[in-house]
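RECORD TYPE: inverse folding
INPUT: structure tokens
STRUCTURE:
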């Protein structure tokens, strides 16, 4: 299927890497980039979901690579393979990441390190490899987009992930300054709650509905909405974006739940207002 939003061939001749491309938001982004003519190399730890993503894309547009972004040797080999095969890398989406729900007092040192390695070190290793192997020495620069989380005030039950994602945002900002001289532009997308297959199948329906009710827009995001933003940033329209954290979350970063809150609105749904005295 063609893109629902962008013109055909918008990214013709471009090469992109998408980490964590075997499912969820990574899969949606990889497919949208491929629909626009981009050659996309996706990676992840398991072959099967990566092959499923490639099968959904236009023929020959997405290639799957098994790579653990936490392992320096695997990252280097993967990036070397992409450069050897395509000659250049124009865009990197650091989407690979993960966390698990646990009270802060129960997080073990091993559990904390695991989350930090995947979300922070994995992002850094892939970013550094792409920049040092192609974007800097080629003189052509490029774009790097890192996926973080909304809300920015942290996620209770995920202290390790909250710390990791904040680190990635600051890394994005400082690299956008240091590497501007190489014409490398870095952004981050702080993604809220999206209706990915993981969320929709892992949790009971009542939980999914509850999550949607925490969003002021009253719904979960659609994976294609995330993919459209990624495609825009990869396109010429995103050429002047750098150092920015783009929050895509239906206003969840600003407010918990609907407004006005239940019980405060009148029968028509209008929020409360202060009565003003008329001047005599």
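DESIGNED SEQUENCE:
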């Amino acid at each position: 299927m063609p893109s629902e939003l962008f013109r055909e061939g918008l990214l013709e001749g471009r090469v992109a890497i998408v980490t964590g491309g075997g499912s969820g938001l990574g899969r949606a982004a990889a497919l949208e980039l491929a629909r626009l003519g981009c050659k996309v190399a996706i990676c992840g730890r398991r072959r099967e979901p990566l092959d499923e993503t490639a099968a959904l894309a236009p023929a020959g547009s997405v290639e799957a690579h098994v790579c653990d972004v936490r392992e320096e040797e695997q990252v280097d080999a993967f990036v070397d393979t992409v450069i050897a095969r395509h000659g250049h890398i124009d865009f990197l989406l650091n989407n690979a990441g993960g966390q698990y729900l646990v009270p802060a007092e129960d997080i073990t040192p091993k559990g904390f390190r695991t989350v930090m390695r995947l979300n922070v070190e994995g992002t850094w290793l892939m970013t550094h490899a792409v920049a040092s192997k192609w974007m800097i020495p080629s003189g052509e620069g490029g774009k790097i987009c890192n996926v973080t989380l909304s809300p920015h005030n942290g996620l209770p039950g995920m202290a390790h992930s909250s710390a990791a994602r904040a680190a990635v945002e600051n890394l994005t900002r400082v690299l956008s300054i240091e590497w501007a001289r190489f014409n490398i532009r870095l952004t981050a997308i702080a993604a809220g709650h999206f209706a990915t297959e993981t969320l929709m199948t892992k949790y009971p329906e009542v939980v999914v509905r509850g999550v949607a009710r925490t969003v002021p827009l009253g719904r979960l995001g659609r994976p294609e909405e995330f993919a459209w933003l990624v495609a825009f940033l990869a396109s010429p329209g995103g050429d002047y974006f750098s150092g920015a954290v783009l929050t895509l979350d239906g206003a969840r970063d600003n407010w918990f739940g609907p407004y006005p809150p239940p019980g405060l609105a009148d029968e028509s749904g209008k929020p409360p207002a202060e009565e003003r005295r008329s001047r005599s």
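NOTES: The longest strand covers residues 142-149.
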